[in-house]
Amino acid sequence: MTAKLIDGKMIAAELRGKVADAVHRMARDRGIVPGLAVVLVGDNPASKIYVGSKKKMTVAGGMRSYDHSLPEHTSEAELLKLIGRLNTDPTVNGILVQLPLPKHIDSQKVLSAIDPNKDVDGFHPVNVGRLATGLPALVPCTPLGCIYLAKTVQPSLEGLDAVVVGRSNIVGKPLIQLLLQENATVTVAHSKTQDLPDVCKRADILFAAIGRPETIRGHWIKPGAVVIDVGINRVAADGKTKIVGDVAFTEASAVAGAITPVPGGVGPMTIACLLLNTLKAACMTAGLPAPEI
Ligand code: NAP
Fold it and tell me: Is 246 a catalytic residue?
């Protein structure tokens, strides 16, 4: 079997297009232009690249982008003061604080200071709780993107055996909640799981969010399964670096029914879902129904 490739780049571009259309209608009919504030502290090169793409795509989607790049030595108090200002700024619908923050700043304290209605990353404890209890919530972008991709090849996840490898707060745990909402039967695996290959082999749909290159091998995959690879790992190859996922792609695509590539799978969906969350937050503030996208 050769797996169908789930083209995250193309699917993300389509989603960004739908968000841009809804933003255009909102501006035309209501005079509201959603705004996203992105806060970056320090000079982490990878963070700078992510933030740059987020800003570019926010503007391309017809929204306003507010850039707050702060020096590495910014104090926690200064950062909290900025968050307080953004919370009350009516032109800002979404606030994103790029992680990781410098070590002298308590990330959880900063994330918890964001107004939950502007928490487009979905990391605020209120949104975490709302998601877990099935209430409407702003949901973390990467897991949201994973479900969106999975449903392009498997429109109903009801009754399927879903296995999530990884239980981080930003990917694994919210993914579990979203899968339960889809009525999948969910198993979660982590670094202490025994016989991981056997657990993976049960999956009709397998999500890998481990952060270890090519950990999931082809023979761990049930023939025909859908495989969503969240991992982004930089590895050395022929004197250069390349990016690979948590799944051994070539082996896995000989067995799976459908699979996301790395790069070009889940990665592009994260920013597209960030734009969707900003639009949702703007609708919420304006008392409008959530966009049907
Ligand atoms: P993380 O916080 O480091 O969590 C990794 C999880 O994998 C943990 O739950 C850990 O188990 C589990 N794990 C580690 N080694 C394992 C093993 N050998 N077998 C089974 N489970 C194992 O990572 P994360 O933030 O969730 O990110 C995971 C990957 O996704 C990374 O490569 C990251 O770069 C990528 N990512 C991509 C995007 C995107 O936009 N595409 C967004 C976010 C993250 P324990 O809990 O027991 O330690």
Answer: no
